[in-house]
Predict the 3D structure of the following.
Amino acid sequence: MIKFLDIQKINLQYQAEIEEALIRVYRSGWYLQGEENKIFEKSLSTFLNVPNAIGVGNGLDALRLILRAYIELGFMQEGDEIIVPANTYIASLLAITDNNLIPIMVEPNINNFNIDITKIKEKISSKTKGIMLVHLYGQIVFDENLINLAEKFNLKIIEDNAQAIGAEWKGKRSGTLGDAAGFSFYPGKNLGALGDGGAVTCKDETLAKTIRAIANYGSSEKYINQYKGLNSRLDEIQAAILQVKLKYIDAENERRRKIAKRYCTEIKNPLIILPNYPIHELEHVWHLYVIRTKNRRRLQDYLTKNEIQTLIHYPIPPHHQEAYKEYQDFSLPISEQIHQEVISLPISPVLSEKEVSEIIKNLNCYE
Ligand SMILES: *Cc1c(COP(=O)(O)O)cnc(C)c1O
């Protein structure tokens, strides 16, 4: 069976270094808020070229904390609106509704699955305070129109960069394009820890300080609590492992690009719709390689029979989830179509050329 994602194999590439990191932290006797976290935050901000990086508990918390900090700083208040793509992973919405903000869902572009920037302006109201961009499947969504819109309507641009670490837009990395960004180091992400982990990046010092405090019980000084905070910190063990893996992320993303390029040029089957191959390759780090097909179930069964594991990202759009019953009558036909037709092919830095050829051959024989 060709695995969808072989996380064990990915991590065993760096076995000696990761084991050294684990033992170093274990023996140090210091497990939270220590040197490993500081070093990782510094490496991440250097890698991205952004002034502030804050290690937090996970990707969802990273996004929750950004919005929470904007509320504490008086830039947003409960009931304000945040624009978000309708077809994102549910975490982007949860971060919004958890802060009692209102998600305003905008339809994606069916060719690249990202939010359709041309449809944002008509959704802006007097209550709109931000746009949560999701660089879905690893592809950056950003342009000058977005910058102008945000300036004109005084909106914060928040990047959900859980899937796109390392991607570049005009020489700038994703996670540095807007006002603040949330990262996830969930094991299956391009930069994966050995458990949960996340980070926030931002330019503004006050915002960074506020987020750091909220993530630590609302406190920047021990036993002095300025906010009703939460506990969301990156473990020292995860920070030490992430230091190792960050060194290799560009090379790993490059390997993903090579595989994506082969899929984009060698899969030739009228029953399969490939994603738009971006003109600017660096804008995509191919967290997922997502194709569309009318009869998804049939294609998935065929691939399984041929020993190729695939997954669906995602089978149900957020507005059709039970958790969001209040949005069930919304009409978001493009998003709904995407959720019915998508299927994700194996892609990872440890997938071999032989396996890629096998996948392409099977897809080209599918009828
Ligand atoms: C993974 C993911 C998150 C949440 O990250 P966790 O670390 O799992 O909390 C948020 N948004 C998107 C788009 C994701 O893919």
Notes: The pocket of pyridoxal-5'-phosphate is lined by residues 58-60, 88-89, 91-92, 134, 160, 162-163, 184, 186, 196, 198 (CB under 6 Å).
